[in-house]
Fold this protein.
Amino acid sequence: MTGGATDTVARPLLELTGITKRYGDLLANDDVSLRVAPGEVVAMLGENGAGKSTLMKVVYGLVRPDAGTVAVDGRPLDISSPKDAMAAGIGMVTQEFSLVETMTVTDNVALSGTGLGRVDRAETRRRVVEAMERVGVSLDPDRLVGSLSIGERQRVEIVKALFHDCRVVILDEPTAVLTPQDVRALFETVRRLRTAGLGILVVSHKLREVAEISDRVVVLRRGRLVGDRVTATVRDEELAALMMGGSTDEVAAATATPAAEPSELEAAVGMEVPTDQPAASATTTAASPTPGTTTGTTTGTTGEPVLRLTGLTVSRGGRDLLSGIDLAVRAGEIVGLAGVSGNGQTELVEVLSGTLPVTSGTLEVDGQDVTSADVGRRLAAGLGRLTEDRRGSVVPQMSVEQNLVLEDLPAYTRRGLLDRKAVRAHAEAMIERFDIRARPADAVATLSGGNMQKVLLARALARRPRVLVVAQPTRGLDIGAYRYVHQQLDELRTEGAGVLLVSEDLDELRALSDRVVVLFRGEVVGEMPVAEASPDRLGVLMAGGGSS
Amino acid sequence: MKFVLRGHEPRWLAPVAVLVAVLVTLALTAVPIRLAGAAPLAAYERYLVTPLTSTSGLHEVLLTATPLLFTGIAVAIAFRAGYWNIGAEGQFLLGAIGTTWVGTTFTDLPAPVALPLGFLAGAAGGLLWAVVPAWLKRRAGIDEVVTTLLLNPVALLVVQGLLNGPWRNSSSGFTDSDRLGSGFDLPALIPDSRVHWGFGVAVVVIVVAGVVLARTATGVRIKAAGQAPRAAEFSGVDVGRLQWRCALVSGAIAGLGGASQVMGVQHQLTAGISDGYGYTGVIVATLGGLGAIGVVLVALLLGDISVGAQNVSLVLQVPAQLGAMFSALLLLAVLSAMSWRRYRLQWRPRSRSGGSR
Amino acid sequence: MSINLLALIGAMLTIATPLVWAGIGELITERSGVLNLSIEGTMYLGAFIGFLAAARSGSPWVGLLAAVVSGVVAGALMAFFVVTLGLNQHVSGLGLTLLLIAICEFTFRLLYAGDRPTLDDKFAVLFRGTDVLAQHWLTYVGFLVLAPVTWWVLRSTGLGMRLHAVGESFEAADVAGISVTATRYVALMVGSALMAIGGAFLTLAVLGSFTLDIVSGRGWVCIALVIFARWRVWPAVLGALIFAGMDALQLQLAITSAFDAVPGELMLALPYLAVIAALAIGGRTVRYPGSYLKAYRRA
């Protein structure tokens, strides 16, 4: 039942049949079937939240499926723990590495095979070095893992899989945190594994990498397998369309109305924000430009700067996480911040949010210097925040209404006591306005990701911020919530506020931004109007290729 | 068999869980009662009901509950802010020391001056004992569980050292302090009973704490700081400062408990001034759901059982430690039952043998 | 003022013995990421059950065995609360301590209402007549067998690696096929058995009787020692010796009464204060085990 294109390959090493997993109301995996042959690299493509991670956890025995089987070499397995998976020859390299930082490389690699008795470290060490040589990895086996770089840790994970004679290796988002050099090294390692006859499953949401490394691509969307293609013959936009979903009409429409500089990718995925905006936009100030496509130059969007960073530097442990950032966001514009994750975006958002101190430089919100201001003063100055860490921004056990007023408690205090009526009224108004599917007294923990995001959006927007800092606003959201968030951001711009949009989704950046700024290793390495921000150009900059 | 996270919690679950926990506790305590040669049902009646059937019994319950009200709300405030103050015992003792010091030094003070001064000294003593761990936590991030805990035996040693040395009773030579000046005697709250004004002070403290926790912006911030410190920090709550303040308030309230016990019951300092009230306070706070009303109810319940246990030990010869056993068992049973709110048990048959080697 | 140095060292070794047993027990449970506040109650239980079984059977060996069994049961209970049910470690541990002490006191009152019973036969002192070497066999075993063996097991065996992995990172352990639940259960049961031996040493070897204040905070001292030692065996043993040395010195000063001015209580409090001071000075750099105080559930 999977794509006919692959039936020619040999008996599959790994075969998944009808995997189904449900979490409450969410169907994380819906009848997923998949095969990986020896010497084959299969890429599994899907957006964040498509169910890839759940599927991987099922294969690795970390999550038990509600239905379906996992087979290796044609033998169905009862995998209920990673131990079973490993015994069956399945090795996994997860996104968050499963390493003990206070142990040496050798001990980490050998950990799972170790019995209870005495450990022959010399012998183990010799075998670990041997396994490293087989995949062309060179690391000091006696170093503590805690002292290794991210890329090195990933290599330890791969060596670990090989050390245990795994025949199928699963790489879960392997490039998410790597530098370009590390990515090249990784791909080299993957090719070696393939030559050795292993089956490899790479899970990713990055089209380009998939195209580079895989023989075959399967696409997962909202828990279902929606496509199975041979990499060499499939076109990127077809994959993107499969990933994005929506009806074929929508994809066609998106393709028909490309942004300023169409490319394959962008044409397929760069969703245009629906143009039938609420009438509110008619009342906005002169400062607000028409969004997106009309801007030709950097200075095309006018308006006073509502956010200005000057020489902003953040150091920790003698290392610059951000160095000398100069950046301004004007009223009525959305500035997109692009970069491979781990290049300072998270730190930038934290600095702006007020949870990470500035080392040097200044930070102004709407003309007020808030460089060393606490959160309360930043909010008062007109800053709004919507970070990628949603669960870290709400108090899960607290009610929707209390979370909504958490940043504005003094405004709801009358004669020392909380005005519960006003709190409730505010919650009801926000629930109505932002279409939050919850009651005011519900604990936030019980809400879906989309509704939680709406609560945060409501909290950030309720105080009418002059500038909104927003990071990965649509990650893991369903298509409805995705559109809703985009619409809200666009509306905010129309109303004359500034938005700094941090996203790893280039298509999102290019669909919403007026200007795009690229961050690489904590420095701004490029800034251009969206019309000039082609994926190719951004890609080069994000990889450090354009640095001066 | 395994635990599965619940999607939603049915409304009936929490009350049923508590009920099951109480029944389990009763069933388990039946064993020692039987061992002691008494009939469990008759004993339960004496533990739980008898103290409530007479006026004098009720008075004793209120009296016994008084120190638990102080330590219970003290621990509840700290725990709510996410500050694990296990040191209420030591803070209670230091409160008693503070009160004894002013009470034996300024013996001639009249009651209207003496009583507030006594409470103030108690609060100061408790606060003093809470400062060091709270400061270490705030300045250096040192786990407060260990530091607050370790200061408890030190506080007891301080009491013993004072009683063996400088504060040894000047007339009897026994190891308890001189009597406090008569101005420091807390008057009876209820005429002709041993219930003293310490109970009234405890109620006032709890009402204030309850209003602050449940009805003010500070209360919301404390809750946020305790449940999700990172989110609270993100929303502009200075978690470190809030915990520091809650730790000090907690220590001061525990110290008030010591003051109340010295001025209301013993009228002097003795080595046995605290019958583990600080530790029991952890039980009271936890069982009371870290809320004011819960603390009052649980403190009264434990007071009831404690009075009942004295009664049973006299009448039925069941050792009075059954009261302590009951409260500890109840704590563990309720906590266990409450985990049922978050998880449900799922029995799964070991499916399909074979396949994996 | 004269201090008999050899007698002082001898007393120090005796006083340190229960701290070494129970401290190593606590160290093992904390290495698995569980702060076991039931230690005070478990030592009390070991002391009482050991005494009770020895009194009934007439043999301290039976007492010791009973204490070990009681410790294993207490550890399993603690594990049920914090591992299986995932309850808060502080509150469960403290609750268990209060429960165990209440059970022991209840039973003691029931059986020996008002008496001060003593054992007919307690563990004898080896090499009697010497100052330093006149110690109980549990002292020798504690210092010369338990400590080095624990050190070796933690460092050089698969068991030690498992404990290390579980204590540092649940995910890493789980993915490596190590059962977090089983490892923590074993750590708690073994650790609690050692705590119970530490308690039983007091009744079966030192006192030969049981009193209601027999443990009197030694469990809390062990918790301090383990953190002070940063979860390493030899520093924990050293810490126990220092603590015991102060205690012994205090006792000897009290006997020689040359130091009436210094209250013995102050000397007794010094070790606690020393630990707090050490935490205050070194606390910034104390690195707790990664999974400390956490309960594990797979998603």
